[in-house]
Amino acid sequence: MTRPLVVTGAVAVVSTALLALAVGGGWLGPDVGRGADFCEAPHGGWVRQPVNTLSNLGFVVAGLLVAGRAAHRPPDSATSRRVMPTAVATAYACVVVLLGPASAAMHATQTEWGGHLDMLSMYLVAGFAASWAWVR
Q1: Torsion angle (degrees, nearest 10) of CA 11, 117, 52, 123
Q2: Would you say 63 and 94 are in contact if contact means Cβ atoms under 8 Å apart?
Q3: What pLDDT score does 36 carry?
Q4: Helix (H) or strand (E) holding 100
Q5: Is pLDDT at 1 greater than 80 in this prediction?
Q6: HSE-up of 53 (CA within 13 Å, CB side)?
Q7: Which DSSP state fits 34?
Q8: What is the pTM assigned to this prediction?
Q9: Do the Cβ atoms of 64 and 8 come closer than 8 Å?
Q10: Is residue 47 a contact partner of residue 98, using CB atoms and an 8 Å limit?
Q11: DSSP conformation letters of 57-87
Q12: Running DSSP on this structure, what letter comes out for residue 28?
């Protein structure tokens, strides 16, 4: 079953492309120094915090690994209650992938909207974890 990888891969490509367009086009607004006090020292140029921005690709890779794991396991009917169903694992993989570009939005631009995307992505991951724990 390749559906988890296809869905998560599409989310990774689209969200990363939108991030590149937003940063290049200045869609997220002016630099207000968001994250400048506790992150990498800002650099001039297109990407304000290059190391922090690029390190967020790790979340994209992690999400794709989760999707790969979900794609190569037995069908849901053969799994126990402790194992996350494939559809839920795919949704989780997508949330993890989105954490990368959303956090990179803040580090690349230091804008207010970039900061909001960064916080939203963290709330999504935490909300997903809490929801799954409650359902289980």
Answers
A1: -90
A2: yes
A3: 82
A4: helix 86-109
A5: no
A6: 20
A7: T
A8: 0.88
A9: yes
A10: no
A11: HHHHHHHHHHHHHHHTS--GGGS-TTSPPHH
A12: T
